[in-house]
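Quick one: structure for this chain?
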Amino acid sequence: MRRQVVQIFRERLALVMQRSHLAPAAFARSLGIDRSTLSQVLSPSHDRLLRAETLAVLSTRYGVSVDWLLGLTSQERSGADVVEQVRVEGQAGSPTDDRFLRWYAEAENAGYPIRTVPRSFPDFLKLADVIAYEYAGWPEIDTDASVRWAQERLASMRASDLSQEACLPLQGLQVFARGEAQWSALPAALRREQLRVMSETCRALYPGLRVHLYDLRHTYSAPFTVFGPQRAILYTGGLFFVFTASKHVRLLNQRFDDLIRAAVVQPADVPDVLAALARDVG
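Got it. Here's what it folds into:
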């Protein structure tokens, strides 16, 4: 994940330097560093960022935000200079394509809590065979890569204090347990094992992982994810609506809070509900 941040920073630093129309030595002097330091930061063979005080100088002198330099937002300028807009990105054939995974990594690297309402349930809680089944009809998805990411994400959560929240409809899990709708061809033994493993994982990772179950008879939500204070995305199937304006991110955070308040099963009780569903699989 650090490698991704460094790569984005290197690209954006090079763009700022190009816009300055300064020679590398002069650009380095403007930041209070020597030419060799600048060369190392720009070199793909080095995994290096500028020091915090130099980042502050770069941000002030060239009018770009530190968060933009580090790839934490698409908002290049900070403060009143920015007219914030919603960005719509097409060709989102998958709710977890490369862009989504990049946003996930950026937020995780920054230590931001992630809050999600997934299309079904979070990929990092799924068995590899369930991921392969669910995405079998999505030719644009690299299933093996999705499985690797899910396993790496789960390992990261087990090894750290990363905070993750998810809101799911209770009925969606009941449909999965009964093998209905999109799960109709998934063998009962695999559905039972998935629910059992999910129950154990939610129990083991609580309270770092908090899953809330809401009732579709009382509320509804489209899939969306809030990546800390910098970005939120709404997935509509084929399109990502990307929000970087603080007021929009705040509204989606508030919507997530509404789902938590509407939850009929709280995180501490979710493992027991999942275990009961597993026992009921025919």
